[in-house]
Amino acid sequence: MNSFTEINDKIIESTIEIFTGMVMMEIAVAGEPLEKLGQLKKSITGMVGLAGTHKGVLAVHFPQQVALDVTSSFLGMEVSEINEDVQDAIGEIANMLGGNLKTILSDRGKDIQLSLPSTISGDEYAFTSQAEVDQVILPFQAPSGAFYVEVELER
């Protein structure tokens, strides 16, 4: 039994809300939650850590082209290479999603703290947890391709 069953819909709703309202991009759910992601190729991941009553991480994984398009839409200017603007934009999207997750998981978010957002990117890397975690990986479709919102919470 996945402990995320009851919060998946809220994570989906907040992701669509952030993309529609802040990124100015229409997105849609792209299928059922995934068990694992495997190697990420030519991608960028934005993440925030959670500490307090729930410990874990929220990550959002974008292929580079999707990250460029998301950043261009978010900033309202053309971005053609992975640079500091893209890292900042992807980090901020992770931060907004993390803030919403904090609210979903706790009463008014007072018993969970978020880390500062960070990003990783590269030609090929894996995103895995060292701890025993429950996780959900939600696939979304943006106009230029798929991306994934991943939540891992320690058991």
UniProtKB/TrEMBL annotation:
Coiled coil: none annotated. It comes from the Bacteria. Keywords: Chemotaxis. Gene3D superfamilies: CheC-like. Residues 44-141 form the Chemotaxis phosphatase CheX-like domain. CDD domains: CheX (cd17906). Signal peptide: none annotated. Pfam families: CheX. GO terms for biological process: chemotaxis. PANTHER family: CHEY-P PHOSPHATASE CHEX. This is CheC domain protein. It comes from Desulfobulbus propionicus (strain ATCC 33891 / DSM 2032 / VKM B-1956 / 1pr3).
